[in-house]
Amino acid sequence: MFKSLLLKGRTMCILILCLLSSLVVTAQTKISGKVIGSDDKQPIIGATVKIKGTNVGVVTDVNGNFTLTGKTGYVLVISYIGYTPKTITVTSAELGTITLDVTNSTLNEVVVTGYQSQRKKDIAAAVSVVDVTDAKKIPTGGASDQILQGQAAGVTVVTQGQPGGGSAVFIRGISSPDNSSPLYVIDGVQSNNMSTVNPNDIESIQVLKDAGASAIYGVSGGNGVIIITTKHGKSGASTISYDGYYGSQVPKGGNVFNILSPQGMSKLAYLAGDQSVYLKIYPGGAGTLPIYGYQGPGASGVMGGPGAPAVDPNILAKYNFDPNNPANDFLIQKFNQTGTDWFHELFKAAPEQYHTVTASGGNDKNTYYFSLGYLDQQGTEVYTYYKRYETRINTAFNIAKNLRVGETGFINYGESPEGTSVYPGQNGFSNQNEGDPISMAYREMPQIPVYDISGVQFG
Question: Number of C-alpha atoms within 13 angstroms, CB side, residue 341?
Answer without folding.
Answer: 9
